[in-house]
Design a protein that fits this description.
Shape: elongated
Low-confidence stretches: 466-472
Strand content: 15-25%
Mean pLDDT: 86
CATH class of the largest domain: Alpha Beta
Strand order of the largest sheet: 3-4-5-2-6-7-1-9-8
Number of strands: 20
CATH topology of the largest domain: Rossmann fold
Number of domains: 2
Helix content: 25-40%
């Protein structure tokens, strides 16, 4: 370890003494996250054990190379770093694997191994969701009693993993240990700031001045560690004003006011998202639940499971939607004209319930604008334009807040591995908006027809009276 290095008083010292199984550190730029991670990984009781095994991951290969360079200087005299890919070989015999996390596919390289320590650099940029995190933690275990398994992650606000990290660490265990009631695993979040890093303040005052001058959401995120505002979030107006406690959807809500939306994926890594909606008396859409299918091989299997799920969902009284807007890629047939397309299996399963399947309008930019409008407040009534039931929409909520603007097209959402739920929501809200517009047009036509008929009848009645008086 660096000969003259010692932790700064405050958060950096505190994080190195924590014994919780899962530790999250950081929150602001310049808080000394990387050096704290380097020191934590090299605790003497671990690197002094010949059987010590650990893992370091970061999203990008280029950033990982910078970490390796710093590690080589920091661990001078304690270890050597060599190989392709790089590994840290500790003097006592232990090994640390260094890897970058390109996507979910790379997860398979780490599953099944035993790691006593895991260090994840820039976690909100690296691990996209809780599912990936939980799969990673499956390899955090020990067969050596004296080596207690422990995880450390660090990050600033922002990135595709922002929402789940905020919900899991920041909101749950800021500066105090939390024991998960289900897993019994302990975790803690230790926030840090550039103000806790006297080395940086002294060595780079220009950077401090720049950081303190940042304004807007970026300044709040990087300087103040504000997890409520971060750069790049596309749906920045998605917030707590949309959330509501669920209630039973009584049969008085006719099927004509119940809708569905479906983004389809199949195969071992495929993800499908189905959203269930109803319109209240004021035509406000309520997202009742999200049903996610992962790793389903066939559309037939998905259709049957979705049918049973909707039919048995108690809060909606098992009511099936009248219309479902779906991804029109489901119309593609597997081979000849006699083959079935994916949508045909869904139509078969739902035929007896009177469900109408409609190809979704897939205009992305206009669709995102409609979603942004629905996520806003109605200024006339000061109420939300849509609602979601908080108990049954975790996948939807935890991903829609992660959506980033496309850097090459700011009015579009960047395509990524977790955009299924946003796409599906777009199909639903665009379809509902179009359905309402069509209904209003139909009403206007009906009113016009009634008005014209009334006018004709009045004229006929007037003519009749004229005939009776002989004035015609």
């Amino acid at each position: 370890m660096g000969k003259d290095w010692s932790p700064h008083a405050g958060p950096q010292t505190e994080v190195l003494r924590r014994s919780e199984r899962e530790i999250f550190y950081g929150g602001c730029r310049g808080g000394g996250k990387t050096e704290a991670g380097l020191a934590w990984l090299a605790e003497p009781e671990y690197i002094g054990n010949s059987r010590f095994s650990s893992l370091v991951i970061r999203k990008d290969y280029e950033d990982l190379q910078q970490w390796v360079f710093r590690a080589g200087r920091f661990y001078d005299g304690l270890a050597t770093i060599s190989g392709t890919p790089k590994k840290i070989y500790w003097k006592a015999g232990g090994v640390t694997v260094i890897g970058h996390w390109k996507d979910k596919e790379t997860l398979s390289k780490y599953i099944g191994q035993e790691f006593h320590k895991m260090l994840c650099e820039e976690m909100t940029q690296t691990i996209r969701n809780r599912e990936e995190y939980d799969m990673l933690l499956g390899s955090l275990r020990t067969s050596i009693p004296e080596l207690k398994p422990q995880f450390m992650g660090n990050a600033n606000p922002g990135g595709v993993g922002h929402a789940w990290v905020k919900a899991y660490f920041v909101d749950k265990c800021r500066n105090q240990a939390y024991v998960d009631p289900i897993t019994k695993s302990s975790r803690i979040f230790i926030p840090s700031s550039y103000k806790d890093n006297p080395t940086l303040i002294k060595s780079d005052p220009g950077y401090i001045a720049w950081l303190e001058g940042l304004g807007g959401a970026l300044g709040k995120a990087w300087r103040e560690g504000d997890w409520g505002a971060f750069k790049g979030q596309f749906f920045s107006n998605f917030g707590d004003h949309l959330r509501e406690k669920s209630f039973r959807l009584e049969p008085k809500y006719h099927q004509e006011r119940v809708f569905g939306s479906l983004d389809f994926g199949c195969g071992q890594n495929g993800i499908s998202s189905f959203g269930y909606w109803f319109l209240d008396e004021k035509n406000v859409p309520h997202r009742c639940f999200t049903h996610t299918s992962r790793g389903m091989i066939t559309p037939s299997e998905q259709a049957a499971i979705l049918r049973d799920y909707i039919g048995s969902f108690p809060i909606t009284s098992g009511m099936y939607p009248k219309k479902v807007w779906y991804d029109n890629s489901m119309d593609v047939k597997a081979g000849s004209e006699n083959d079935w397309a994916a949508i045909d299996y869904f139509k078969r399963e739902f035929d007896r319930y009177g469900v109408i399947w409609i190809p979704a309008n897939k205009s992305r930019v206009n669709g995102w604008r409609i979603m942004l409008d629905y996520f806003s407040i109605d200024q006339r009534t000061e109420t939300a334009k849509m609602k979601y039931w908080e108990e049954y929409n975790d996948d939807f909520v935890n991903t829609v807040v992660d959506m980033q603007s496309d850097p090459n097209r700011p009015d579009d959402v960047e395509k990524c591995e977790i955009d299924h739920w946003s796409d599906e929501c777009r199909y639903g809200l665009v379809g509902i908006r179009g359905n309402l517009v069509s209904s209003e047009s139909e009403k206007k036509r009906s009113v016009k027809n009634v008005s014209d008929l009334t006018k004709i009848l009045n004229e006929m009645e007037a003519r009749g009276r004229l005939c009776e008086t002989g004035l015609n």
